[in-house]
Design goal:
The complex is a heterodimer of chains A (413) and B (371). Chain A has 413 residues and is an alpha+beta fold. In chain A, 51% of the residues lie in helices and 17% in strands. Chain A has 14 helices and 13 strands. In chain A, strands 5, 6, 7, 8, 9, 10 and 11 form a seven-stranded mixed beta sheet that branches. In chain A, strands 1-12-4 form a three-stranded antiparallel beta sheet. A three-stranded antiparallel beta sheet of chain A has the order 3-2-13, with no helix packed on it. In chain A, a hairpin with a 6-residue loop joins strand 2 and strand 3. In chain A, helix 2 packs across helix 12. The longest helix of chain A has 37 residues. Chain B has 371 residues and is an alpha+beta fold. Chain B is 50% helix and 17% strand. In chain B, the strands form three sheets. In chain B, strands 5, 6, 7, 8, 9 and 10 form a six-stranded mixed beta sheet that branches. In chain B, strands 2-11-1-12 form a four-stranded antiparallel beta sheet. Classes of the chains: A alpha+beta (413), B alpha+beta (371).
């Protein structure tokens, strides 16, 4: 029976190649856009190299200072001392890393400038982030304690600064007139991973890191790694508890701000938090995002339903004949549903091919360095699911109307 | 159903066009200054807090002594094309406003080729008594000084601090071509300033990275422990532009795909509808209607549909300028609406044209025979 339906579906598709093309175009392009979009979002927010453990990591990236009347405010990252005192001291997490926000510097080779992104980190950073070491190893507590001039660089910087194809381990790199010994070379990460991306990593005791800064605001963020996802609420409440015990004088910190808001948040929440501070703004954000999504999917869906409704009238006589020979409405309904699922699946296959091509083009274009967009399993499942919804939207509705036609009307048309 | 489809397309077009019209209308306004050979040297004093102001003075003299340098100027961290912003409140005759503050010195106009329209750029000799000399842009002039000359007027910051206007510049769109022209003022740096550690260096033509490397090496020797970063304004401008262009490009691609989809679908539906009405067309032709009249009928029908959809769309779109959503100029929305309506009609007409032509060519004898 199913084979028969599929055969009919195939013949129907071939009967009017132009309409089949319209339908396939709609389905495959909508799905391609969706898959590329989800893949990109997954690239931004999912757990990927070197933040493979992002799903169980909390970020303390932004602190908000307001005065008691809530009329003026100031926000930004915290100081190293603040994080050392209130984040590093947490008992529940597996590990806590303190990393400087991005900063830039230049180095010069043969009259050419290399722009580099510098990062100051503690030793735990290398345990919280899973960098792949191509050469050497990360700096340890001892290096930090000694204030050694050592650095971990990326393979990309190695190839630009040293001759391509040579090893960099133990060599020296001159950055702003200070020679740092290369202690390790890591595979670089995409710049979209703000807190782990860098070209060169220094121990926080290296010059110009400003870890000595007094006060609560500075240029450092903290990555708190939980043992399991279930531990996250416990860590958050422990951190909130730590923050609530900060004495008033310390919060005032020679400014007129008396209220301090700082939270340990999961990556996506922390991202949302930077531009939507209260709940109403979050609702606004979600409704805008929802609206865009509805537009992207809704328009092709309406289009598809329109085309299908129009086309199905064309097949009225076919339906009339089948009904006259005793086919129940249910059988006809099934035929149309299967036909539509069939075309949706074909469209879905095209979509996967297109997305694969586009994603590999993005990856190889160098638009994002070290881009690692993938068509991964969750994205695929979501897409297939959406495929089916599309199939039902454009299949069930017209078919339902059709199967209720009287035989006489259907035959006459 | 067709109405919903056309309405949705109209809304998509309206959204994307608003974004494009906004950016284009900003882009056609000149940024007002030259950035071609200007380098931005960003210094950070880090843990060195001893005599920072003196060191900055010395550094400026040291850089100036190089023959590769044409002109240079100190500036606050919100240098052109940077992401930083500094807004403060000022008051003049009970009108309060928060313009962007740029802290800089007497060479700024020369370094950035920023022409002064009225008055002059401030110099050391303008710093008399308790007023700090400032230069304002014409946008700020429009808001604060209606029907009077701004020169010599005193603007209040707070009880302790007041400015005296010595000149007016036209535009200074520091965030690049795609930014809006917003009120701004330039305050003369005080002698003991330690915050404004950016130095804008205008180099002579043909100066390359070799000089840059040499300069950085010298500075690093003079200023141990300081952070030194050189970037070209042309590079920074490109980065800023990408911040605007990438989202616009993504929206453009997505909506282009949506509209292609809609156009194809519309074409298919109209084709089918017209095919179904063969008899009617045959009859009209037999009664003496010309080909043109038949084409006109079908185009007219789709135009009526499109008009209905656009009217529904307008009910939504008109809310944007009325409610001042996203704080954009009402003209932006109006232009977007007009272009969107035009595009909808063009798309609809294009999609209806071919099927209508086909229909009009049907021979009455054939059409009537089939039934």
């Amino acid at each position: 029976m199913l084979i028969n339906y599929l055969k009919i579906a195939w013949k129907v598709l071939l009967r009017h190649p132009f309409y089949t093309f319209i339908t396939l175009f709609g389905i495959s392009l909508t799905l391609t856009v969706l898959m590329v979009l989800t893949s990109f979002l997954d690239h931004l927010f999912g757990s990927h190299y070197p933040e493979n453990k992002r799903f169980r990591t909390l970020y303390i990236a932004n602190m908000l200072q307001t005065d008691s009347a809530n009329t003026s405010m100031s926000s930004g990252p915290a100081s190293f001392r603040f994080l050392e005192k209130y984040a590093k001291s947490l008992k529940t997490p597996e590990n806590v890393a303190i990393v400087s926000n991005f900063s830039f510097s230049n180095t010069y080779v043969n009259g050419k400038r290399i722009k580099i992104n510098t990062k100051y980190t503690d030793a735990s950073f290398w345990k919280v982030a899973d960098f792949e070491f191509l050469e050497g190893k990360p700096y340890n507590e001892q290096n930090i304690k000694n204030g050694d001039y050592v650095a971990v660089i990326t393979d990309d910087l190695r190839d630009q600064y040293f001759e391509k194809g040579t090893l960099a381990l133990g060599k020296f790199i001159d950055i702003e007139n200070i020679n740092y010994r290369v202690i390790g070379v890591v595979k670089g990460s995409p710049p979209t991973r703000l807190y782990t991306y860098g070209d060169v990593y220094f121990p926080y005791t290296a010059p110009k890191s400003n870890y000595q800064n007094k006060g609560i605001r500075g240029s450092y963020i903290s990555m708190v790694l939980a043992k399991t996802i279930e531990d996250i609420p416990a860590i958050q409440s422990e951190f909130d508890n730590n923050i609530s015990r900060i004495p008033k004088e310390e919060i005032r910190d020679a400014s007129h701000y008396t209220v301090l808001t700082v939270k340990a948040l999961r990556y996506f929440d922390h991202f949302l938090d930077t531009f939507a501070r209260d709940d109403s703004q979050k609702v606004f954000f979600y409704s805008i995002a929802g609206l865009i999504l509805v537009m992207i999917m809704g328009l092709p869906a309406i289009n598809l339903v329109n085309v299908n409704v129009s086309r199905i009238l064309e097949r009225a006589s076919e339906i009339g004949v089948r009904k006259a020979f005793g086919a129940p409405a249910k059988a006809l309904l099934w035929q149309f549903i299967i036909e539509n699922i069939f075309i949706t699946v074909v469209g879905g296959l095209f979509a996967i091919i297109f997305s694969f091509v586009i994603i590999s083009m993005i990856n190889s274009s160098g638009w994002i360095a070290y881009a690692d967009l993938t068509i991964n399993f969750p994205v695929f499942v979501i897409s297939i699911f959406i495929c089916l919804i599309f199939g039902f939207l454009s299949g069930v509705l017209p078919a339902f109307r059709m199967s209720k036609l009287k035989i006489v009307d259907a035959l006459k048309a | 159903m067709l109405i919903i489809e056309i309405w949705a397309s109209f809304m998509v077009l309206f959204g994307v066009l608003s974004l494009i019209v906004y950016n284009v209308s900003n882009y056609i306004q000149p940024i007002g200054f030259e950035y071609d050979r200007v380098w931005n040297l960003q210094l950070t004093n880090n843990q060195d807090t001893v005599a920072v102001a003196d060191k900055m003075h010395r550094i400026v003299q040291q850089i100036k002594s190089n023959r590769e340098v044409e002109s240079l100027s100190r500036m606050s961290s919100n240098s052109p094309f940077s992401a930083n912003q500094m807004m403060n409140g000022v008051t003049y005759k009970k009108v309060s406003i928060s313009p962007e503050f740029f802290y800089t010195d007497e060479n700024f106009s020369k370094t950035m080729d920023l022409p002064v329209v009225t008055g002059k750029w401030f110099t050391e000799s303008d710093r008399v008594s308790k007023f700090t000399p400032i230069v304002i842009n014409s946008k700020l002039e429009e808001i604060l000084f209606i029907n009077e000359s701004p020169l010599g007027k005193v603007i209040k910051v707070d009880d302790k601090k007041s400015f005296k206007v010595v000149g007016v510049v036209d535009k200074f769109k520091s965030k690049g071509e795609f930014a809006n022209d917003t009120p701004a003022l330039f305050e003369m740096l005080s002698k003991d300033d330690t915050w404004s550690t950016n130095v804008l260096i205008k180099t002579k033509a043909g100066v390359d990275a070799n000089f840059e490397a040499k300069l950085v090496k010298e500075l690093a020797a003079t200023l141990p422990g300081w952070g030194i970063e050189v970037s070209y304004l042309t590079e920074q401008r490109k980065n800023r532009h990408n911040l605007t262009l990438v989202p616009v490009a993504i929206f453009l691609i997505i909506s282009a795909f949506l509209l292609t989809n809609v156009a194809l679908g519309l074409f298919g539906i109209l084709n089918l509808n017209i095919a179904k009405r063969k008899n009617e067309i045959g009859l009209r032709r037999a009664m003496g209607a010309t080909e043109r009249a038949v084409t006109k009928q079908f185009l007219g029908e789709i135009w009526v549909l499109a008009t209905l959809s656009v009217i529904i769309g307008l009910l939504f779109a008109i809310q944007f300028p009325i409610m001042h959503v996203f704080d954009l100029n009402a003209n932006v929305y109006m232009t977007a609406i007009v272009i969107a309506i035009a595009l909808i009609f063009i798309i609809v007409t294009l999609c209806a044209w071919y099927p209508s032509r086909q229909a009009s060519k049907i021979h009455p004898a054939l059409a009537l025979h089939e039934d």
